[in-house]
Amino acid sequence: MAVNEVYQYSIVSALMDGVASHGTPIARVLEHGDHGLGTFRNMVGEMIVLDGDVYQMKADGSVVHVDPATTVTPFATVTRFRPTVTIRGAVTGKAGLKDLLTRLIPKARNHFLIVRMDGVFRRVNVRTAGGQLTPREGMVDVCARQTTHTFEGVKGTIVGFRCPGYVMGVNVAGDHFHFIAEDRKRGGHILEFETDGDVDIAAAQMSQFRLELPTEDDEFNEAELKLQAQGIKAVEG
Amino acid sequence: MAVNEVYQYSIVSALMDGVASHGTPIARVLEHGDHGLGTFRNMVGEMIVLDGDVYQMKADGSVVHVDPATTVTPFATVTRFRPTVTIRGAVTGKAGLKDLLTRLIPKARNHFLIVRMDGVFRRVNVRTAGGQLTPREGMVDVCARQTTHTFEGVKGTIVGFRCPGYVMGVNVAGDHFHFIAEDRKRGGHILEFETDGDVDIAAAQMSQFRLELPTEDDEFNEAELKLQAQGIKAVEG
């Protein structure tokens, strides 16, 4: 696969419906990208893919370096990231990053974006999903028990996507960021952040989207997959 | 690209918003498939792709064999079709075909399907979009002026897709069929049909979906692309 193309396994609506018992080997996902986000079987923790390495950020705050050959994912989005825009500057939180991306890449309203930020953060608030209590438990219920953490004065990296509104349900419309500390010991799904001075921002616009659906998966086949836009915004926004 | 994978250029919501002034060379689309549906610049006519040949079915009832090297499409969906299910039987219209597909391929509720039917039809009702009167005229207005034709006792072929509900707006959720007569002189978007005795039905389930978005296209960049599910059902259902 070429660079800066979106590859996605399964759809967010499947997670909403609790389809997370099975998945695809992460090694297969990595054939299509070296940066990205996702989750793990039974929605245990948050996934971040960084320079081809995969980390599982757990609800207790710990981070595990994942072996892609022996671990599967029920949902992941990755790209082979080659930045087309780079800039150094301070970013005042999610809203600031949103504005910056729109300014940096103005003609991407209906395209996908990938972004990576490296630097020192004054503060990062994350949440981490702890996992399903039972098979098919939906993401709204799983995230109702999410753990939140605040990291202060931490060096690390944000990886995120912006998806166009028309893929809501397939993926998350709008911005969606995960964070991992440089020591690879802390991280999660970003609720809010603030940089401490300037950070390095790299981004690329993407016009190719490749979706692979689960096969031989009764949970996926039987799920209703109705659009739950408000629910997705609540747990992923 | 492998067989039985969906390749799509642009999204149906863009047509709804009247984004149809530009497009991609049809020759590029054919690199990804030999069967499919679509439209042409300014939504002039209905496209059917059959065994790698592309036909433009116009509102006056005529059909043109299209040169893929010199013609562009603002929206098309194709697949390199290799049937995994074939059957011979009578089909009593769109509802009958819908039931038959669900019976033939029961575990495809959340997957894509491609279907082709060859035979003699007692009756085929089609509509054909005549095209935009002005740039950015939306598909609902274009289709308000559509022409309908009824063909009786005609030998021909139906090509169609079934798309899962969660791609509504990206494509058309549900079934969507076009027809072309064996003499390649009549055809259109199917409103209803009835077979005359048995026909040959071939289908395949598809779990890979590849979407290519227009680039360098201000119309696409500037379009709102809000989901108009009712409008899509009205003009494409």
Summarize the model shown.
The structure is a homodimer of 237-residue chains. With 237 residues, chain A is of the alpha+beta class.
Strand count, sense and barrel status of the largest sheet of chain A are: 7 strands, mixed
DSSP, total strands of chain A = 15
Our measurement of the CA-to-CA distance between the termini of chain A, rounded to an integer number of angstroms, reads 29 Å
- Kindly report the spatial arrangement of strands forming the biggest sheet of chain A: 6-5-4-3-8-1-15
- Topology-level CATH name of chain A: 60s Ribosomal Protein L30, Chain: A
Give the overall average pLDDT of chain A.
95
CATH class of chain A: Alpha Beta
Q: Provide a count of the helices of chain A.
A: 6
- CATH superfamily of chain A, please? Hypothetical protein, similar to alpha- acetolactate decarboxylase, domain 2
* Count of distinct structural domains of chain A: 1
Could you state the order of secondary-structure elements of chain A as H and E?
A: EHEHEEEEEEEHEHEEEEEHH
Structural class, judged by helices and strands of chain A?
Answer: alpha+beta
Strand content of chain A: 35-45%
- CATH architecture field of chain A: 2-Layer Sandwich
Oligomerization category of the chains in this entry: homodimer
Largest interface: A-B, 31 and 31 residues
Query: Could you list the spans of chain A in which at least 5 consecutive residues all have pLDDT below 50?
Result: none
Helix content of chain A: 10-25%
Radius of gyration computed on alpha carbons of chain A: 16 Å
Pfam families (chains A, B): AAL_decarboxy
EC number (chains A, B): 4.1.1.5
Protein name (chains A, B): Alpha-acetolactate decarboxylase
Keywords (chains A, B): Acetoin biosynthesis, Decarboxylase, Lyase
